[in-house]
Specification:
Elements: H1 8-22, E1 28-31, H2 37-42, E2 46-49, H3 60-74, E3 78-81, H4 84-93, E4 100-105, H5 113-116, E5 123-126, H6 129-139, E6 146-148, H7 165-174, E7 181-186, H8 195-206, E8 212-217, H9 225-237, E9 242-244, H10 251-257, E10 260-263, H11 273-280, E11 285-288, E12 303-306, H12 311-321, H13 328-335, H14 338-352
Parallel strand pairs: 1-2, 3-4, 4-5, 5-6, 7-8, 7-10, 8-9, 10-11, 11-12
Helix pairs in contact: 1-14, 3-4, 8-12, 11-13
Length: about 350
């Protein structure tokens, strides 16, 4: 992994590692490091810090050498690469070493030589049927080496019966949310998430329901701080009641206390992990009508789709979705459980090893 900070891919990596350890697999994660390393190690995996994140070509030879030395010492059966920079570094570091490579294609990456590396592994895991079709169309990846394995939702963590009630009480107090109509959008601060449309929709809802509060839940990397400042300025200009609560570890609790969760991404989500997590906690989701979320949301049952970039349509759909009631936990358990993902992934490992 490039690093272990926040994001669905990173959390998925940590969860998979934990479950593999439970099944007796020796699990080692190589990354630049980050906030999730402590949790990873507490749950039984080993972490080795190598900068497989930087795109600086000048430092690449030394970093590739370091990775190669680590791999020689590990003598792994399989190496599972989950991003393009680590995949390229692994490509050069592997020469002369004997192990199989698995890649996971998590998103609709730009079609170019740089992205093609993710399809060059011995086996390729796609997180949705849409991703499989995408790489087959653009890279002619053979069907025989592709496995479709949707991201798994941790049904212990995302279980309405296992939530931290004291956190929810304190969180509501801290951000003045008691008795409010709470609409959340969860994800790293980046333009692809289209938080602008989310903020505009909250401003429109305020004219109809003045107790609405929009929550933007996620941190901003240093290279996104200017964009982050622009979002805060937009909220001020529109007088939108939007609170930027930063990166949070108790994501399940935030989904649960929300009345509606929004996924307004401009770029199609390869799967839509946050959507499935929110649904597991019984919270309806309004999402842009494209990508992997089309396979997760049942329109008019547990959520709604809106026209991408249309704040007016998003506001209407948020208000409509707020009255939905459904068995989200049962739905996710039957279709997108972590256990299913782990077992299918382990089968791929065993086939290669």
């Amino acid at each position: 992994m490039p690093e272990l900070n926040e994001g669905g891919v990173e959390r998925g990596c940590v969860e998979l590692a934990r479950e593999l350890v439970k099944k007796g697999v020796e699990s080692v994660v190589i990354s630049k490091g980050g906030k999730l390393v402590e949790q990873l190690e507490k749950e039984g995996s080993k972490h080795i810090e190598v900068d497989v994140c930087s795109k600086n070509p000048l430092s690449a030879p030394l970093r590739i050498y370091r990775l190669r030395e680590v791999l020689k010492e590990l003598r792994a059966d399989v190496v599972h690469v989950r991003s393009r920079v680590p995949a390229w570094m692994l490509f050069f570091a592997k020469r002369g070493l004997d192990f199989k490579v698995i890649s996971t294609v998590h998103g609709f990456n730009s079609v170019n030589f740089y992205s093609r590396i993710m399809t060059k592994a011995d086996r390729v895991i796609c997180v949705s049927g849409a991703i499989r079709e995408y790489i087959q169309k653009h890279y002619n990846t053979p069907s025989g080496k592709i496995s479709v394995i949707p991201r798994g939702i941790d049904l212990v963590r995302f279980n309405p019966d296992n939530l931290d009630s004291s956190f929810m009480v304190e969180f509501k107090r801290r951000f003045d949310l008691e008795g409010k109509f709470i609409v959340s959008s969860v994800g790293r601060i980046t333009g692809l998430k289209d938080f602008e449309t989310f903020i505009k929709s909250i401003a429109k809802i305020q004219k109809i329901q003045d107790d609405v509060v929009g929550l933007v839940v996620g941190g901003a990397r240093e290279d996104k701080l200017e964009y982050f400042d622009g979002l805060k300025k937009l909220a001020e200009e529109l007088n939108a009641n939007v609170k930027f609560v930063g990166s949070q570890t108790k994501i399940a609790e935030i989904y649960y206390l929300s009345d509606v969760v929004v996924s307004s991404s401009k770029k199609p989500e390869s799967f839509g992990r946050s959507v499935a997590e929110a649904l597991a906690l019984g919270t309806p989701v309004v999402a842009s009508e494209h990508g992997g979320v089309l396979d997760i949301i049942r329109d008019e049952e547990n959520g709604l789709f809106f026209k991408m970039g249309d704040a007016e349509d998003l506001a209407k759909k948020i208000l409509k979705a707020s009255g939905m009631r459904f068995d989200g936990y049962g739905y996710v358990k039957d279709n997108f459980s972590l256990e299913q993902m782990v077992n299918k992934t382990l089968m791929v490992y065993e086939e290669l090893a």
